[in-house]
Amino acid sequence: MAPLPFDPNDPPARPPSACADYLMWSMAYRLHRDHRSSADGFCVTCVPGQFSPCIGRYLAVRGFLTSRNLPDLLPASERL
Ligand SMILES: [Zn+2]
What we know:
80 residues, binds zinc ion
């Protein structure tokens, strides 16, 4: 599988220049930030106690990839 064009654990807040949909990237970034992992491995937003990566995180990474027209590059760590 090809490497992702960004770090899925620390994506840039600003859409990359190759981004085809800046709004989708920005929404995915906000979703990614909101569903970050706490120190004990749980999502800080999903309650009660959802392990990270949660569905919000999964959707955020899908959003990043779709905004770059790369929906098939979803890493195994972000698959449900
Ligand atoms: Zn979550």
